[in-house]
Amino acid sequence: MLWLGICLAVVASMTGTAGKQCFRFSQLQTEKGTRPALFTAKVSLACGYLLNIIVGPLVDMGSYAFAPQSVIAPLGGLDVVWNTLSAPCTLGERLTPSLVWGCVLISGGATGTSFFGSKEDKAFDIEKLRDTLFRWAVLVYMLVLLAWLAFNMVVLIPRSAAPRGEPFKTGDKWRGLSLGMTAGSIAGNMFCVKAFVEIVQASIRESTGAYWLDWLPYALFLGALFFASSNLYFLTQAMREYEALFMGAVFEGTLICAACVSGVVVFSELEALQAWQVVIYWMAVLGVILGIITVAFGCMNAPDDAEDAEKAPEDVFGVEAPQPRESFQEAAADLPSPRPSVQSVLPRRSQRSTSTGCPFREVPHVVNEITKVRRSLRGASALSPTTEGATDTSLPPLTAWQETLK
Q: How far apart are CA 29 and CA 239, in angstroms?
């Protein structure tokens, strides 16, 4: 039934993508501030919690019942694929070369770990689980995990994008990277889910309720709830403050690494593999880590939209910006000259005609133009009210214009 576990893992990755994008969409609607947008934001946030707390974990739990953790957990990398394909359409986000290459590395590494990971699904009873979980290797792993989470929560997550001494401001890239890695590190530890599902299967297989008289199943169930829900605080903060493409890649990449390491340490799932398979498996995990680094550094080196707005046009579009004028006269000097008046045109026309040897060649044309102007002005003066003593604004008689031509 390995194929059924893989199919359920693919469905779980789709629900995870939809849930994270609901968180991001909720924040985008909240920023609009209108009443319909705020209502949509609340509905989207509720859908995100529903998909990430109930639907996703239940489907994920079903997948762990049919396949080993080292095979199922890396399939969460498909979340990166769904997110990369859909976020530009659903959220209007922009793909960058570093983001694309990072997603390719993460998806390729996740696929490699699924192909070369252990295909053997061991059967556990409560005694075997107790012997498996209570080992020094597991204790050391948990201490390292706690130290890693404490470092992120104390050092990186409190970072502010504002200068020192100013009020806290979101947007720091290290803070975003830390939020995604913290959420992924918590969500990737699925060994409690795997162990709890093994107890359920053993109880059904042996048709006995003796397993539920022990405290271990309940402790594992609480641990599964803790790992499945506690990451949502960091994930929600991350998806509200940063783009889904960047955060989805960081979160899923860290989740895959944590799931692979926890499966190997807790359940010793690589013991049945040959040496070359183990090497390829860890190379695939390294590919996932390189994908996270590529996405992170690509995002950190990318300019913010606010910085682009502050840049000069030649910095953004590659064209030279117009330089400011020192005075109004300099700015007016660059404007095109107004259309010349009749008085200024007539001497030039007369001069041009004289230079050709025919001083009266253009006289009929000029007289016709002057006649049209006189008629239009007479019509306007007839429509406007006149008063005694008003100044006569009509044109001089036609003979005056003819004298000017001479």
A: 13
CA gap 303, 299 in Å, rounded: 8
Is-contact 19 56, C-beta < 8 A? yes
Cα–Cα distances in angstroms (integers) from residue 350 to residues 235, 337, 343, 402, 406, in the given order:
83, 21, 11, 11, 8
Amino acid identity at 220: L
Q: The pTM is what?
A: 0.64
Alpha-carbon span 247 to 201, nearest angstrom: 35
Torsion of CA 375, 378, 382, 386, to 10 degrees: 170
Q: Give the domain ranges of the chain.
A: 69-315, 340-373+401-406
- Whether residue 18 is predicted with pLDDT greater than 50 in this model: the reply is yes
Neighbouring C-beta atoms of residue 206, cutoff 10 Å: 11
- C-alpha 83/C-alpha 88 separation (Å) is 9
Cβ neighbours around 56 below 10 Å, total:
22
Arithmetic mean of pLDDT, 245-257: 84
| pLDDT at residue 44, as a whole number | 93
CB 71 within 8 A of CB 114: yes
Largest CA-CA distance found in the chain, in angstroms, rounded: 125
